[in-house]
Write a structure and sequence with these properties.
134 residues; 25% helix; 6 strands; four-stranded mixed β-sheet; 26% strand; alpha+beta
């Protein structure tokens, strides 16, 4: 087993990485803000290239003093429901759409009015909201 555990969290506005030893003691942390782009009212997006580069930066910052081969596990978490569209080669098709995006509000209102949302919940156990991609 490795000597370290690495955690990465891509929140809505901040990307964070933390390195711990296997006893749970914090070794090092780093974070960087990631700009939310709002090209239109109600839209909330992030540039996926920036997200990738920022994630790599915070990871490099927290592991630069250790041998990466000694990292026994990596845990990742994110900002919640959002949409990350990739092409067949795994490349971004567009900016990511964040869970705070409200461009689909009218669609969700229609689904609620028609009771589609209520019927779908029986199968999905999910409530619809404009920024939910699932």
């Amino acid at each position: 087993m490795g000597r370290y555990l690495l955690g990465v969290d891509n929140g809505t506005t901040v990307c964070k990485a933390a390195l711990f030893d296997v006893d749970g003691r914090e070794v090092r942390t780093a974070s960087r803000s990631i700009e939310i782009q709002q090209p239109q009212p109600g839209w909330a997006e992030r540039d996926m290239g920036t997200v990738w580069q920022t994630t790599a930066q915070v990871i490099r910052e927290v592991i630069h003093t250790v041998n990466p081969a000694e990292i026994g596990a990596v845990g990742c978490t994110g900002h919640g429901n959002g949409l990350y569209l990739l092409d067949k080669k795994g490349q971004p098709l567009r900016n990511s759409i964040l869970s705070v995006d409200t461009r689909a509000a009218a669609l969700v209102e229609n689904w609620q009015a028609s009771r589609l949302a209520e019927r779908a919940r029986l199968y999905s156990m999910q409530s619809f909201y404009p920024g939910q991609s699932t």
